[in-house]
Design goal:
By secondary structure, the chain is α+β, with helices and mostly antiparallel strands. It contains six helices and nine strands; from the N terminus they run βαβαααβββββαββα.
Amino acid sequence: MNIEDLFIKKISTDENFDYKNLYNDSRGAVHKDEYKSLIRQAIEKRVITVDTFIVAENVQEELYTISEIKGFEYNLINCLKNYHNEADSRVAPLIYLLKKLDPSLTLNDTEGKLQIISDLFEAELCPRIDGKNAEPRIFFPKEKVAITSTNDDIENLGDILAVKDVKVYALGTDDRSNVIYAYKVSRDDSFFNVAEGYKENLRSNLFDNIRK
């Protein structure tokens, strides 16, 4: 499975690309400013590069229909939410992508854990792919593809980007929810060592401050 085969086209990414397109800057996070600095500098130094794709156009009505799902399927919306009161419309593009991959997919709820059942792909919903804090909305383990939302906070995005050998795409829409965009965030090998040390120092300092 090559997820990019689903996309309509690749479009030009502005040289002055605003990294804030990759996440929701109004969301709070413990180390928000530090993570913003890390990602901003990595983009400026071309250690991180971003490719922009259009996933779908003229999908406002379809996304609205997904947002209005009721019954058992509504569990998928709730499962993909990053926080309890996140708007259903923020999750709709993720479900659109899953159904584009396999229109015949079904859901299974085993021991309170919702699972995607598909003959075409394997997907995990909101797993912690580093065993700690990196939690994409969707993860395809065989392809090692992580799908985040542009409504994620900066810290979660930073944690996901720090996971080596994983392709990362941030999914979002325009203001009218009529076009779905995917931002492919590629990292140079040098980014991973820097990011891991950066994160450990932040958490070490936080722990020291709590102890004091």
